[in-house]
């Protein structure tokens, strides 16, 4: 008997976990408070044991004694550590290294979590990446003006600054002028993060999602975003629509995805790759994660195909057999999260589309919305910032895509008494 230990800090397990059931495995959860609290009864009962921790406790040092107990009980070769939580990937890799367990170790996991290392790996694979550099906090503290002037000389405005290891556009800032850089740097110097400076890339953003089994791509699905993720904090809807295999863009995206996988050699499991398609007809690597795509994509994709990316991620990690043949005949779909607006809500609107439109609102007319300032570690599309989720369905993909374009620019919330 083997034991699979899932380690999740903040990413909820919204997938149907009983689909992972296998006679060779028992399943254990080491989860943050919110992850455990969000488990459905079926998912809670799926685990033979649940260990609850505060998020700050989910570190290698705290988890190691618990992992060691399972190693002593089942044997080192029968213990597997898995996660679909971006922040836990380095923790899981460190625990594997500490106990010499199966799975990729820190030196490889850094390729998928550290954006500076990621850039180097992509460049070695001859993949186009944005120009970027580490923000040298020591140089800044020695001579702020000289160092910031050197950045302004090296990068054309606008450019971006962001943490090296966080996900979901957390800590992202677009620098439009020199004063913004000076203000940002002063605040960043008081925070415990490493930052990078990067070229600002314009274009359409796509996410390319794959399931890796036996070191090769077993399944791939590509989607076009409504907008780059960081624009959610500026009031833009964030969602995506499938790129069909008969779309001329699919072949080029597929080749790019293949090239990236060859450069990064990801472990078995899901990968989530983001790439810009620029107005100059160039594909530019943004980042890659060795995990399931986030937000509502896994749930929407399951409705379309019966394939749930998070389940397939865990199955591939654990070597559990699967069926990756998608269902057919379902309506095509698109989705988007609606950002909250500050003020008193006066109207909630539907987009003017021909596709079937379903909106799950988390707010109501009359609500007075106040948004707390985002910390560097906050996902910009975390639940407190989401007003609702809109789904579009149509059997005619051409019509759905036209409606997706309408949705992309739709103003679905009207407010009064907006505060600054």
What would the average pLDDT be, to the nearest integer?
Answer: 93
Radius of gyration: 22 Å
Strand content: 25-35%
Low-confidence stretches: none
Give me the side-by-side strand order of the main sheet: 13-12-9-10-11-14-18-16
Number of DSSP E strands: 19
Please tally the helical runs, counting DSSP H or I stretches of 4 or more residues.
Answer: 13
Query: Can you give the helix content as a percent range?
Result: 25-40%
By secondary-structure content and strand pairing, the structural class works out as alpha+beta
| Shape designation | globular
Alpha carbon gap, first and last residue: 58 Å
What does the main sheet amount to? 8 strands, antiparallel
Task: Compose a concise summary of this entry.
The protein has helices at about 35, 40-45, 60-75, 90-100, 105-110, 115-125, 135-140, 145-155, 180-190, 250-265, 295-305, 310-320, 395-410; strands at about 1-10, 25-30, 50-55, 80, 130-135, 160-165, 175, 195-200, 205-215, 215-225, 240, 270-275, 285-290, 330-340, 345-350, 355-360, 370, 385-395, 415.
Structural description of this entry:
The structure is a single chain. It contains 13 helices and 19 strands. With 420 residues, the protein is of the alpha+beta class. The strands form 4 sheets. The chain has an 8-stranded antiparallel beta sheet, with helices on both faces. Helix 8 (144-154) crosses helix 9. The longest helix has 17 residues, at 248-264. The protein is globular, with a radius of gyration of 22 Å. The chain starts with a strand and ends with a strand.
